[in-house]
Amino acid sequence: MGILFTRNINNATVGLWEITESVDVLFSKIKLNNEENELYNSFKNDTRKLHWLSYRNLLMELITPEEYSHVIYDDNGKPYLADNSHHLSVSHSGKFSAAVISKTKSVGIDIEIIHPKIEKVIHKYLSDEEIKNIGTTSRFEKLYIYWSAKESLYKLYGKRNLLFQENILIKPFIYSEKGEITGSIITEKMNQDFKLFYEKIHDYILVYTLAD
Fold this sequence. Notes:
The protein is of the alpha+beta class.
């Protein structure tokens, strides 16, 4: 299948890749340097390889071949292009890989398959107020929107030591299959609101955000 969609929003480009190709097909479409080949060869199963290869194929669709450079990670695990030309965030779950990229803005993205198991961990990432606001209507979708929104803001922030319950908070919202919400990053040095975009795609929730 490859690219399911790309869209431009506020000087950023978002893309979603549906993985239907084999490992060999995805591998044949990109060129890896020595470090990337070493990392790729360390993966033990095809699912990990498919996710890793698909988001690199996706990135090459979001920017021109001339702009593309190899992906590396900083000490906090945040990915970026080796030439520092773009801000970057990636995510993958099940049959999808997602990415958002921008020359000028910090970005964050997350995609998750919807599953009832999330009920077991809500007290690890939601505040008491957030749990109260969710209610019962479209509960699983809303739980995953909260989760993916907090993941997206964590990736945008790009540093460790953010607590999901205390430092990343999502304002109440009315659920639809596609919409906008507001989240906040609150630390001793920062108190800032961010707009997040979400949508339900089949049995998945996709959320992405970018700094003003």
